[in-house]
User: What shape does this take?
Amino acid sequence: MVNRERITRTFCDLVRVDSIAGQERQMADAIREKLKALGYEPYEDNAGQTIGGNAGNVIVKIPGSTKAAPLLFMAHMDTVEPGRGKVPVIDGDLIKSDGTTVLGGDDLAGAACMIEAAAVLAERNIPHGDVYAVFTIAEEGGFFGARALDVSAIPAKFAYVLDDEGPIGTAAVQAPSYNRLRFVVKGRAAHAGLCPENGINAIKVAAAAIAELPCMGRIDQESTCNIGIIHGGRARNIVPDEVVIEGEVRSISDEKLKHFTSLLTDSFQKTVQREGGTVETEVETMYGGYSIAADHPILQLLQKAASRLNIPVNLHSTGGGSDTNIINGKGIPAVDISVGMCNVHSTDEQIAISDIVKACELVLEIIRTHAEEGQ
Assistant: This one.
């Protein structure tokens, strides 16, 4: 049912299009043209305007032939750097990058699956309810397209986000909430050669505060924290009077997120004051987590569809975030399912054609099973 040659061609066509976050204009145009060629009427929202990008989310409704509740499928159009001038290299069943860029399977594999599913629904008499496909912008680094998506016009019962790794049948059913941390440590400037004793070295103060943090990296099975960015200082001959530190705390448990965030910020404050500096602390909740119970209907549907294809289902918890977090937060139960991408965000990225085909088959089986059960 899935056309292997066509889905491979679609994926490679998309890979060749540059689509760095915030610069998805060409990708949005390419996806809209492919959907129009299938007889659909895709449209673009104004999400790009809200983030200063050059394209919005691409949305298409595939009208159903049954009264089954609508389903939503999502993938993001943007890729990470190095992602300009991508060249797909087919090696047997594998598609790789040429080694100078990422491949972009994250998440163009998901986009290709959705386009192929739309093609199959257009040419085959498969009973189904309304299906919505959304191709989001600027997922990498902030899920900005999903944040700006108006779901009031998408009355979906469930959402399946095609943006996970692992064997087909893998689904992320838990993901953490995320707090961004920013510390601005203030010291006192002085000439480093003439009177260093008159200064307070903000870098030294910050280093002490970081060294004395009570936790770093993996805290427990549900929680992590990290300091990822440090910048400051004006010149080698000036005792630095300011340094900025940025980090994060993540946890599946909102209670733990709050606890560890307070633990870290309190520790930082105490050490900086002891060392003679001051600190301005900023905490921002970037997105909430989600946890889908194993007996939830969205997973029952996934299990039934996968069983029909003899695909084992692997439910797991992830430490990362995705558009899935945002869609759950907007009130639509959502899980993140695998499209087979491997070694993402690296120049070693690759994907098996057979996995893209199998992922698309699973999407179609979810749609068919849902319609048969009249949910």
Remarks:
- The longest helix spans residues 254-274.
- The radius of gyration is 24 Å.
- The chain has a mean pLDDT of 97.
- The chain has ten helices and 17 strands.
